[in-house]
Each structure stands twice: as C-alpha cells, then as structure tokens.
Amino acid sequence: MEVNRSDTATRILEVSELLFVEHGFEATSLRMITQQAEVNLAAVNYHFGSKDALFESVFMRRFTPLISACLAELDALEAKGAGDSIERVVMTFIRPCLALSRDPARGGALFVRLLSRALVENHRLLREALSREYSEFVERYTQAFRRALPELGEQDLSWRMHFAFGLMFNAFAGNDVLKIFRKSPVVTARDPEAIVQHLVPFVLAGLTMPASD
Amino acid sequence: MEVNRSDTATRILEVSELLFVEHGFEATSLRMITQQAEVNLAAVNYHFGSKDALFESVFMRRFTPLISACLAELDALEAKGAGDSIERVVMTFIRPCLALSRDPARGGALFVRLLSRALVENHRLLREALSREYSEFVERYTQAFRRALPELGEQDLSWRMHFAFGLMFNAFAGNDVLKIFRKSPVVTARDPEAIVQHLVPFVLAGLTMPASD
DNA sequence: GTCTATACGGAGATAGAC
DNA sequence: GTCTATCTCCGTATAGAC
C-alpha cells in the first residue's frame, strides 16, 4: 500500500529534510542521513532511487500543499469578486508562504529558504518534476495578473511577473547579495514579516506602473 | 615576480573559467581541468590550494574590474553633478554589467551569469573574500542612493537597495523561477538588452515610490 | 518486499621523491 | 615546481540474508 510506507522511508525523509535545510544539498551526504536515521546506507537508493530523487521527494512533500494553498486563496478571492485587485492577488501568494515560514512543524522559515533556493538554483531533476506538475500554478497566476492589470500588453505582463516572482522567491530564500559585502546588515533580510512589509509595496510599484508597450 | 606566473597557473585559470561557465562549479572536476590544460592533477592544489580557492581566483579576475568600472562610472556621474538622478545612478551599475556581457573575450553573457549565480548562491569562500575587499562598493552605492533619494529614511533605503540589487543580480544571472513551470517562456530572460529595457523601469518604480517611514 | 554488507569508480586532497 | 602514488570520502550498484 502506498500510504503505509515503511518507517524506514519516512525516517529517511524527515532526517534528510532537516539536514538539507541545515547544510544544503551537496554538503549533505547519504552517509550522514542514513547514520542519523539509523538505517542502512543502501536504504536510500532502495526506497528513492538516488540522492537526487530523494531531494525531489523531500521538496514535493512541502511544495505541493504550498501551491495548493495559493491556488485555494486565489479561488476564494475570485469567488468573492475581488480578483481585480492586484494587491490581493499578490497576497494570495505571499500569505501561504508566510504561513509556512511560521510553522515550525514543517521546518519553518528555514524550509521556505530551501524551497526558494531550490527554485532559484534550478536543480536539474526538479525542473522536470515541476514543469510536469505545476504548469497550472503559472497559468492560473498569469490569468489572475492579466485580469488585475488589464491595461498591460502580453510582453509587459510577462516581464513584470518574471520580476515580481523572482523578487518574492528570492526574498523568501533569504538571499542578500548586499549583506555579503556589509559588516553589519541594516536589513534583517531573514525576518519574514519584515520582508513582506517592505517587499509587497516594492513589488506593487513595479507591477502597477504605466504600461510601456 | 607576480606578473610572470608560470604558464601552468595561467592555463589552469583559463581552462577552468571556460569549464565553470559551461558546466558549473560542482560538475567540473579537477581531473577535467587538468587534463584539458595539460597539467598534472596536483598542480591545482599546488598553485591555488583547493578547488574552492581556484574558483575564487577565477571569479575575482573578472569581478574586480567590473566593480572598478561601476565605481568609475559613479565617480564620473558625480563629477558632472548628476548624482541626484537615481536613474543615472542605477545605470552606472547596469552599464558595466551589460558591457561585460557583450565581451566574448571575457566569457560574455555566460560569465555574467556565473558571477551573478555565485553571488546569489553565496559560495562560502566567496563570502569572506568579498566582504574583505568589496565593502567599498556597497558603501559607495549606499551614499549614492541616499543622495539621489533624500526623502527616504535609512530603513526604507536599505530595503529598497536590497530588493533593487537582488533583482538586478538575479536578472543578470538569468534566473527565471517561472520558466521552469512554463512550456514556452514568453520572456527571453537571457537576452541582456531586453532584460535591461524592462528591468530598469521596474526597479526605478520600486525605488522612487513614496517613503513608508 | 525489505534490509544488510560490501564493492566499485570517481572525487578532492596530500606526502614525498625528483 | 612538478609528478606519482595514495588517502579518504562520495554516490551508486548488487548479491544475498531475512
């Protein structure tokens, strides 16, 4: 039965989630995982096929419900006829990300960083898995943006979505290209609430500026 | 003499730059590099200390002149008394990035991607090297932004710089979090000129919106 | 079906001869 | 400076025990 997975596979999943979040993908070895999970080295390849596929499983376990939550918020927004507010559309994405980042049982803020980094860094195996299953996400948000920003041409719309989601994913990833230069970072780039408070207006300013084409 | 480096070290540098750009850091092995450069495997560790340190050398060889070019443009801008235009300040950063991306002798667009990805992905050794040598870059641009956006408080200023540089570096890195979902990307996220044409207005909109604090 | 022990090839690093 | 030989650790594959 698919549901009653052996404890071995579950233990591997949970231990490796913690280790991937803490040390990153490359720096986490299968020997670290299997030792801490108290299972045999070969168990990972038996249950998941490869280290890459293990990461994909770890990733999908959190990503699927996150995407569903965003689309559910989008459904709710459109159901109550508020789908023409771009701010509210943006918040249907932001809010589930924030909720996930506050949930310690699901790894909290650290896991959101893993998610975002995996997207930004473009893991090989992840690409295929995502384009297979999550094209709906992009299509739904493209529709939603088009409806909330009807004065934009298709080119403008695509570019602005590109920048907006890039900015949001990177913000949640905790990437701070300036902090690596600075001795004492002024911006607490890892505090999700503070990020959102400044991020949303910035993104909205770019989205709502006059059309260029 | 520092200038007359042995041909061995130089060959390693040039071959590894090409391979890092083409295959990425992890996927490029020392054995690939040394074979193609026709030097012994141990030569890398003798001349550079480690694979990480080799990457740092490859990186710095291009990054240092890029940063200098930006600061030179900033100097020129302020010398002619145009330092209060935020658009022009932003362009002092964009223009050298574009120039580098057009220069095939220095790796062209692919190398700009490597640079940006290294920043975004936050290589361990890179962090230390950068914070040691390039704090001037951040300090100069912080001053320049403060002068061009005098109505902003320090908090607003830091956040907006954080978002603006994050957006610009990611754009040049060619990261496209949406494209991995899409079958056919509408946005040609890798074409530097097209990026800039849409990127600059988006960034400026966020930078110049009314202050929040 | 599950799990264990073990082996293999490739990686980065290094000691020591020349 | 250079090169050979060798070390440890990695992900992976498989044969065979339960």
From TrEMBL, chains A, B:
GO molecular function: DNA-binding transcription factor activity; transcription cis-regulatory region binding
UniProt domain HTH tetR-type: residue ranges: 6-66
Signal peptide stretch: none
Location of the DNA-binding region in this protein: 29-48
Keyword DNA-binding among record annotations: yes
Pfam families: TetR_C_30, TetR_N
Keyword hit for Repressor: yes
Keywords from the UniProt entry: DNA-binding, Repressor, Transcription, Transcription regulation
Superkingdom of source: Bacteria
PANTHER family noted in UniProt: HTH-TYPE TRANSCRIPTIONAL REGULATOR RUTR, TRANSCRIPTIONAL REGULATORY PROTEIN
Protein name: TetR family transcriptional regulator
